[in-house]
Amino acid sequence: MKECKYRGWSTDLKRWVYGSYYEHCSCAVCFAGEDKPEYHQARIIFEQIVDWSFPYRTMIADVEPESVGAFSGYTLNGIEIYEGDVITCSGIKYPGIVKYGKYDDSHMGFYIDWAESSFLRKDICYWLESENRSIKVIGNLYENPELEDKVYGKDKR
């Protein structure tokens, strides 16, 4: 079974938290017309060890909604790959962004959005499972928003 794991930046803890994502509605909404985006809070549920002699405790952290990304199921040199990560590949001039959704009109899943050219394959498994390519994660869009300009260019966002 595939592990459904997310990460999000907690401003309270000042670090990334990894676990299950849920969107909490802080207001009792009785009618559909009353539901507003400001009522919803992004949260990650995770486990944390307190002391070696005690069991893990389950924690909930408020996270920045724009920082939340799903785990792609792939690791690269021991580093887990999440939505919003920026990847470079040898032989390709510009980096790409890991995304989830529909791509190439008929495919759905995790893919790499390469801005350099539309002829590059987008499916993430093609790039990460190849032994001939040198691939690195150089950051993520939340901590390094300037990388989006590096990928798409300032005028192409």
Automatic annotation (TrEMBL):
Alphabetical list of Pfam families matching this protein: YopX
Residue ranges annotated for the YopX protein domain, each copy included: 5-147
InterPro entries: YopX-like_C, YopX_protein
Record-given protein name: YopX family protein
